[in-house]
Amino acid sequence: MQIINLTFLVNYFLRAIVYGWPNTYVFTKAMGEMLIGDLKENLPVVIIRPTIISSTYKEPFPGWVEGIRTIDSIAVGYGKGKLTFFLCDIDAIVDVIPADMVVNAILAAMAAHANQPGEVIYQVGSSMRNPLRYSNLHDYGFRFFTKKPWINKDGTPVKVGKVKVMGSMASFHRYMTVRYLLFLKGLEVVNTAFCQYFKGTYVDLSRKIKFVMRLVELYKPYLFFKGVFDDMNTEKLQMAVRENTTEADIFYFDPKCINWDDYIMNVHLPGVVKYKK
């Protein structure tokens, strides 16, 4: 049984907060798993929990990605020169796994549990066995877009600099207050004094600030997350696959084989730039 969540209503978001979940995404995923647990009866159930899914490692070819999502939107924003600061614990782990490794793990798990009743959970990620950190992404992005700058529509290259990283919510709020909120307050006063002459500018800036603040609240649990996911079941599945040397080469999903420097610089970021939508 598959459960697909396409809902992002405000009242549903509030419901997630009330029940202790940071957003509707994780809330509905948890609901889906609970529903499966209640209805599965004697059917074999395999739950795959991938972390941040990135471009392909090998198949169908290295670097394939469908559109811009999660960390890729940050990379594109930086490459275009639109991202000058970022909020995160720079030493925290960002748990990334290539898309084809997730697919291989799903196929291997399906074959292993086809006729075995019960429920098994596989955490498919890299945080335990080959962690990638925000500090690494910070460095990779600067090196990549310095060497291969983003080209604007007019043909000019975008020059990027080191992103200012804010390591706490307090520093972020101070930055927003000094850089934007004080100006917005002054603009509100001026707009009132000039009979709403600057209303369009005020509304537009206010909307953008509220959007940024909402995104920060949504992603805050991940930007400062210090946990590492236990993937012992996935490691056991890998060991079972390795027993068959033929299948081990076909159904690869061991994150330890990833050289992050080579993958991000030579596979992932070139793929994001090439297949952006």
UniProtKB/TrEMBL annotation:
The reaction(s) this protein catalyses: a long-chain fatty acyl-CoA + 2 NADPH + 2 H(+) = a long-chain primary fatty alcohol + 2 NADP(+) + CoA
Species per Swiss-Prot/TrEMBL record: Malus domestica (Apple)
InterPro entries (alphabetical): FAR, FAR_C, FAR_NAD-bd, NAD(P)-bd_dom_sf
The protein's role, per its UniProt record: Catalyzes the reduction of fatty acyl-CoA to fatty alcohols.
Keywords: Lipid biosynthesis, Lipid metabolism, NADP, Oxidoreductase, Signal
Pfam family, one: Sterile
Signal peptide: 1-20
Superkingdom of origin organism: Eukaryota
Gene3D superfamilies, per the entry: NAD(P)-binding Rossmann-like Domain
Family the UniProt entry places it in: Belongs to the fatty acyl-CoA reductase family.
Name of protein: Fatty acyl-CoA reductase
Source species taxonomy: Eukaryota, Viridiplantae, Streptophyta, Embryophyta, Tracheophyta
SUPFAM superfamilies the UniProt entry points to: NAD(P)-binding Rossmann-fold domains (SSF51735)
Enzyme class: oxidoreductase
